[in-house]
Amino acid sequence: RVLAAMAEDGWLFALAMGTSVVAAIAGVLSSQHIGAIFDIMADGGHPSHSLPRAVAQLVGVYAARALLTFVSATLLSMAVNRLSTRLQAELVSSLLQQDIAFFDGAAQGALAQSVAADVKEATAAVKHVLQNGLQMLTAVLGGACSLYLLSRRLSLLMLTAIPLTAIVFQRFGTYVRALSRRERAATAAAASIVSESVGNIRTVQSFVAERLEAARFEEELRSALALRHTLGMLRGAFFGLLAFALHGVTALVVAVGGSLVASGQMTHGDVSAFLAQTREVISAYGGLTRLADEARDGALAMRRVVELLERQPTLLVRQLEGGDERPAAATTAGLRPAHVDGRVEFRGVHFAYPQRPDVPVLRGLDLTLEAGKVTALV
């Protein structure tokens, strides 16, 4: 269903993805230009105009990357915004066709959230996966090839260390995010206590339960506060270890690369290019791990949206569009009388809400509604 909606703007998605890949390739090439600049500075035998030309080429690559990123982001934003608009319109249309029994068992806030928040979260995940995910994947693969061409020995060392380090930080980040969700849940629980107490203030004061409600609120606040302290400590440890890991990789590249330069296997520019490319690969690989979590959340939101889009009403619903009657798919067809004279007669009607079948509302109701008269059931 979602792919069919995306197909209407397939050319926009294709152009955005293509420019995103080219922008990532430009990022890989920029490291080579950095290495060339360092080689020129290390070797005084080059003509005087070589350095300005190399710097101009590097600036040109950066400018091309920035322009391609702008084009990709603009096209993808247009496509995703149109996709979001179509999904929201289809979702509201599907909701309006549902039976009353469906709304009796569904929370109105949850339905409104599906129309707004779920569609927004799902389409945002589509945007980030198609733009950032594709760009990061290209940067990782292209960067790995570039590292291998610069130095097989050093690249094998880095391509072994980087994934292992990224996995450790990804697990750490997953635990921190789970703890953050617990903290938000505790904060929401405290807020719900306030809402319930204020909304039922007459009952609270009638039972002289002001202190009890305040104590409940303070208990939830203490739970949330303890989680916030733990989160602050873990986030500090995360960013501290991340900085240490990045500097450690830099030190490792400089140490091993320096020995390779001394043995004549690499140049100063090769080491500089390798270091710049390594940082690009680390950044892209870390972004992919974070994007995987975001994609999972987006997939869950998209599943909720699709479930509502594909839900069919129990009775056949006919709607007039442009003067034509178009029946919607349904599990049970309703009756369509050939002639209606305005007189409606009910005989032995029994009714209970589907969510409360043990609480009957009507029992054997007999009622005749004459044409042109208004009748009220009290």
Automatic annotation (TrEMBL):
Domain of life the protein comes from: Eukaryota
UniProt domain ABC transmembrane type-1: residue ranges: 14-297
Family matches, as InterPro entries: ABC1_TM_dom, ABC1_TM_sf, P-loop_NTPase, Type_1_exporter
Broad class of where this protein is predominantly found: membrane
Membrane-crossing residue ranges in chain numbering: 12-34, 54-76, 133-150, 156-174, 237-262
Membrane topology of the entry: Multi-pass membrane protein
UniProtKB keywords: Membrane, Transmembrane, Transmembrane helix
Single Gene Ontology BP annotation: oligopeptide export from mitochondrion
Pfam families per record: ABC_membrane
Keyword Transmembrane attached: yes
Coiled-coil ranges per UniProt: none
SUPFAM superfamilies hit by this protein: ABC transporter transmembrane region (SSF90123)
GO molecular function: ABC-type oligopeptide transporter activity; ATP binding
Location of the protein in the cell: Membrane
Name of this chain's protein: ABC transmembrane type-1 domain-containing protein
Species this protein is from: Diacronema lutheri
Upper taxonomic lineage: Eukaryota, Haptista, Haptophyta, Pavlovophyceae, Pavlovales
